[in-house]
């Protein structure tokens, strides 16, 4: 029996392959990790907007994302926490949102205009992005609680990169993409991300930064994130994880375009080879990158090390050019960094973590710490008055990021007078909370959230 499947995004435009009928994907083979489902509806060709369509759409998109990862990284056998099944929730109710919180991958829906309902799970872009958080978490669980903006932004970028890789595993998509953008060096439906969700955000909050789809084909140039504005018009680069992610995704897109440009026989097959090669370097780099405030550069350098180890550095020029185009200079790569040719790169060892106090940011964060890897000793006066240029000052990075979370109401704080954190479970758009751990009150992550619009209550029923 067949199902209906949207290979990209419901609003990807006329250049993209439309809704199609296809056989459902098989479940992952024995020994591979996969997803679990609640009460799956019967298989069949169902109309978009029905629960039956949404279930099979989300399932196939999630399995396609897993397949794209495996095409680059080999068998996926365990999620974070050594689990073989990750619960997939196609529709958890009303919200303009989707998230990965380690317990589930969850999607929501929202009526943004009369009769116009946005289902986050109807977009293969969005599903692949959320699954991407889960896959990255399965190999780099240590990134979860790191409070550096670039680490959070890399998690978001990784989701978008997996969305690109998922799209490029689909032959009809590669054919359509090469018709629209033969060298990939222009705007197109693959580098444009989650078009329908962005449209929905624009309907709900006109002028919001996330009302423009994120673009991997971009000319953004690296700046220290905290030097960027906290907010900006649709599509502008701002000091926020989803927006800042575009800088890294831009490097990744340019790497694919650069590798494809070197193909002797251009065409859909060569494009898949280029995408897989870039994906392999990305995943190897993500596994090995050392956590520092300048994490984009750290991943780029680990990708260069991986290319040296895996391909004798054959793609170093293309890689360096892709990053340099966005202001990230990878510099010389030492040959000793990788292991013997062809061997898997070792995973990065977690650096020593030190408690960084969150003093002076919010009354409820007094006495609360985050654990952060210290790259260089923090300045003596604690950090907040750190001199310009000390961009690797851990404490300053942490405090800037937490201040941004507070400004966006991303931290679950107790209402005045209440004890303990309390947030309405519905429309909970927080990503962090304070937990008592080993005698310390620590700020920790709850989830990666797709909704980059502001706080709870905004989308409550009219
Ligand atoms: Zn995300």
Give an account of the 3D structure.
With 462 residues, the chain is an alpha/beta fold. The protein contains ten helices and 16 strands. It has a five-stranded mixed β-sheet with strand order 3-4-6-5-16, covered by helices on one side. A five-stranded mixed β-sheet has the order 11-12-15-14-13, with helices on one face. Helix 1 crosses helix 3, helix 1 crosses helix 7 and helix 3 runs antiparallel to helix 7. The two termini are 40 Å apart. The C terminus is likely disordered.
Could you spell the SSE succession in H and E letters? EEEHEEEEEHHHEHEHHHHEEHEEEE
Bound heterogens, unique: zinc ion
Q: Report the mean per-residue pLDDT as an integer.
A: 89
Shape: globular
Largest sheet: 5 strands, mixed
How much strand content do the residues show? 5-15%
> pLDDT below 50 for ≥5 consecutive residues: which ranges?
337-347, 376-391, 454-462
Widest sheet: strand ordering: 3-4-6-5-16
The helical percent reads: 25-40%
Number of domains: 1
Structural class: alpha/beta
Secondary structure tally, helices: 10
> How large, in whole angstroms, is the Cα Rg?
21 Å
Based on DSSP secondary structure assignment, what is the total number of beta strands? Answer: 16
C-alpha end-to-end distance: 40 Å
